[in-house]
Design brief:
By secondary structure, this protein is mainly alpha-helical. It is 47% helix and 7% strand. It folds into two domains: 53 residues; 144 residues, no CATH class. A three-stranded antiparallel beta sheet has the order 1-3-2, with helices on one face. A hairpin with a 2-residue loop joins strand 2 and strand 3. Helix 6 packs across helix 8. The longest helix is centred in the first third of the chain and has 21 residues. It is globular.
């Protein structure tokens, strides 16, 4: 059995040296390499946990989206009608409400596109790290918010339940991780009826229904 003990010791020592090289640490000459490896692995895992702990949890969740729930996603009202009724928590309610007041008269593709913009903002470090935070940014200052319906002085009352049911499904599908391929990473949009000054500075990435979509160049300020 001596040859087995020597072989096992050599294998463990080799593993310890590999871990030391990859982790930029020095391999100990301890006579108990198993304990040495356990110690180094514990320190490495502790450093990883500390690093993850420094990341805002909501931002981490937004970047680590789950796998798409609908791999056969189609921007087709008939397809959407076959999807189950949508439910969800606060973030789902905020997104569904935004789609209702901002895009319920749009095509289905247009509604998905508006949802993309909102979620693109959630994923960006330039904006709040939750759906509700993005939608309500600036709310409280009349006509100085990001989404007009939140600061136009009118009560948000849902008069068309069937339309809300449809946008609720769109919101659920997008929050469940559907791909964002319509708008080219856009974080801005406006209707064709207006011509905001910032639109001349931004890159237009898509035109869908009655909306133009834009991506703000890096380092460019709205001021």
């Amino acid at each position: 059995m001596a040859w087995f003990k020597k072989g096992a010791l050599a294998a463990v020592t080799g593993l310890a040296m590999a871990l030391g090289a990859n982790a930029d640490v020095t391999v100990s000459t301890s006579t108990n390499p198993i304990e040495e490896i356990d110690g180094r692995l514990s320190r490495l895992l502790g450093a990883e946990r500390q690093g993850l702990g420094a990341v805002n949890q909501r931002r981490l969740e937004a970047l680590a989206l789950p796998a798409p729930a609908a791999t056969d996603l189609r921007y087709d009202p008939e397809w959407l009608s076959t999807q189950p009724a949508a439910t969800g928590g606060e973030q789902w309610a905020c997104l569904a409400e935004a789609l209702y007041f901002e895009a319920r008269g749009e095509t289905l593709k247009g509604q998905f596109a508006v949802a993309e913009v909102i979620l693109n903002r959630v994923s960006s470090s330039s904006y709040p790290d939750s759906v509700c935070g993005v939608i309500n940014q600036g709310t409280g200052k009349r006509y100085q918010c990001q989404f007009t319906y939140t600061c136009d002085g009118h009560a948000e009352v849902i008069h068309e339940p069937a339309a809300f049911e449809r946008v609720g499904k769109v919101a659920r599908i997008m929050l469940d991780g559907a791909s964002r391929t319509l708008t080219g990473g856009a974080t801005f949009y406006h209707t064709k009826a207006v011509n905001p000054s910032w639109a001349r500075k931004f890159e237009r990435t898509a035109t869908i229904g009655q909306h133009y979509f834009y991506r703000k160049p890096l380092q460019l300020s709205l001021n």
